[in-house]
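S.,

Sequence below, as promised.
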Amino acid sequence: GPQRALLPDTAAYVWLDPDRNKLRGYRARYADGGVIVGDGGALPLKDRSVDLGLCVAVSHHLPDDPLDALFAELDRVVRERVVFLDAVLCPTAPIGRLLWRWDAGSHPRPAEALLQAMGRRLTIEHVERYRVYHRYLLCVARPRRRGDP
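The prediction came back faster than expected:
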């Protein structure tokens, strides 16, 4: 969707999602858009076959083991950078607590838990936190190479 506007016109944007209805809606809006029905924990892509991986509003839908598998797969398939964005759990934010009650994702996590999970698989280079109604975490990370900390 809106992420396409951030990429150069020469980029091939492919949306991966297990929900065929979401993919149909995307294809209806962007006839030239590539789609893959799949699971982030088992990406149907070759090693180092993607320049940039975008992970937007996914983590709060995944239990811990599938979240770790997602970060491991992003490490495997991405060559350059991973951009991660998701809402985070903040117990002291009343509007956020209310919004989480209605959200379909049942695994909201505090920002620190997400940073720890991501850091086990990827090297985090940049972190931003902001809020609109929810609190959000935006990270830029790079895949690990052998010998990276």
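Helices lie at 20-29, 64-77, 94-102, 111-119.

Coffee later?
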